[in-house]
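can u do me a favor
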């Protein structure tokens, strides 16, 4: 039986392009999204552009204002406090579950990622450190295996990408972050679920402080 491949809707491609522009700050926080101009720039009608903006609004990357249109979300201090509070609970739980259920192969993968994190820190390569850091957290979530929890974490982390990378460039933060990851990893390797949760929550608390 032949299976026909179904292309994804145009608005999803548009949302992906807009998302990339937002993360690259080509569309800066607080900037107005002019549907008509963007549609012309992308060579599409306003309907898929409008649907794409709705997708980004659902992710928290775009904020819609009554009678004023849509704007790239500006992350305020109160937003950060609320986001990190939720991430601390959820990622702490993910670390706890990972310590309990990870296979030996998965523990090796985490250990290998951390070695790469150590090298990036030694090289003071902030971009590389950030990317490996994301993969380290993603792997913990993957091992924990709770798709509902992971969906919430991923959406919140998208919002954090609007500003968070700069925090790693602040004095001492990269080395402190590395130490926190080392503590999380060691607890997971020891199957210390209580320690893994506590160290992850401490890591998130320190991450919030670094945004000040």
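np, heres the sequence
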């Amino acid at each position: 039986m032949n299976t026909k491949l179904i292309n994804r809707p145009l608005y999803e491609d548009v949302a992906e392009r807009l998302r990339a522009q937002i993360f690259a700050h080509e569309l800066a926080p607080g900037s107005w999204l002019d549907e008509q101009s963007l549609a012309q720039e992308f060579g599409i009608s306003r309907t898929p552009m409008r649907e794409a903006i709705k997708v980004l609004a659902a992710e928290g990357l775009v904020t819609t204002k009554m009678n004023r249109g849509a704007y790239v979300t500006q992350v305020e201090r109160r937003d950060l406090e609320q986001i990190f509070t939720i991430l601390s609970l959820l990622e702490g739980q993910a670390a706890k579950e990972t310590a309990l259920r990870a296979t030996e192969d998965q523990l090796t993968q985490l250990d290998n990622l951390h070695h790469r994190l150590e090298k990036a820190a030694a090289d003071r390569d902030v971009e590389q450190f950030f990317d490996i850091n994301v993969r380290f957290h993603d792997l913990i979530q993957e091992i924990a295996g709770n798709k509902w929890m992971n969906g919430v974490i991923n959406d919140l982390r998208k919002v954090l990408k609007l500003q968070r990378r700069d925090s790693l460039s602040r004095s001492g933060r990269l080395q402190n972050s590395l130490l926190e990851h080392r503590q999380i990893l060691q607890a997971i390797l020891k199957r210390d679920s209580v320690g893994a949760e506590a160290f992850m929550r401490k890591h998130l608390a320190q991450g919030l402080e670094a945004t000040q």
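Confidence is low (pLDDT under 50) at residues 1-5. hope that helps!!
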